[in-house]
Amino acid sequence: MLPTDANYNFKGVLDDLRIYDYMLLPLTIAELNDIQTSIEEDKYEIPVGFSLEQNYPNPFNPSTTIEYTIPNVETGYIPSLQHVTLKVYDILGREIATLVNEQQAPGKYSVHFNVAMRHGASLPSGIYFYTLRVGDSSSPRFYRDSSELQIRKMVLIK
């Protein structure tokens, strides 16, 4: 550490000592403040693919979470609402519950399915299926396009 006394004398050898003098103009200083670098995550990214994820936990007792993604069907930037149904069926194909039956905008969704709150103790252990349908079920296109219907299996253990 060098003393603060201005009369300090340095003794030694300096190799390749160069002194530079550079003056910044006020305009240059102002331009330095204009330089910005940042990376922002796009929080409103519209999904391009339709997906129904595996529930978790699986096997479950008494509740599980189901996640799905609804894509944008429009080619422009305005998201379009689509009719979404998420249903649970037993192994015989009987409908157990309708978790979602509404118009939804493109995005990622999460639904909590609690067997105890919906069916008490009447729902037995076993294999169940959940289906996600996106689009107008009265449209002929709905049945031709298999990407608008997805089915997954889940196991209830008591």
Overview features:
158 residues; 34% strand; 3 helices; three-stranded antiparallel sheet; Immunoglobulin-like; mainly beta; four-stranded antiparallel sheet; 7 strands; single chain
Quickly name the level 1 CATH class of one domain: Mainly Beta
Unreliable parts: 139-147
Beta-strand proportion: 25-35%
Mean pLDDT: 77
Name given to the CATH architecture of one domain: Sandwich
Corresponding CATH superfamily of one domain: Macroglobulin (MG2) domain
Class computed from helices, strands and strand pairing = mainly beta
Helices and strands, in order, run as HEEEEEHEHE
Spatial strand arrangement across the major sheet:
4-3-6-7
Radius of gyration: 32 Å
E-strand count: 7
Number of helical regions: 3
Largest sheet: 4 strands, antiparallel
Helix amount, in percent?
10-25%
Q: Calculate the terminal CA-CA distance, rounded to whole Å.
A: 73 Å
Shape: elongated
Task: Map the helices and strands.
Layout: H1 26-34, E1 51-52, E2 63-70, E3 82-90, E4 95-104, E5 107-114, H2 115-119, E6 126-134, H3 140-144, E7 149-156
Antiparallel strand pairs: 1-2, 2-5, 3-4, 3-6, 6-7
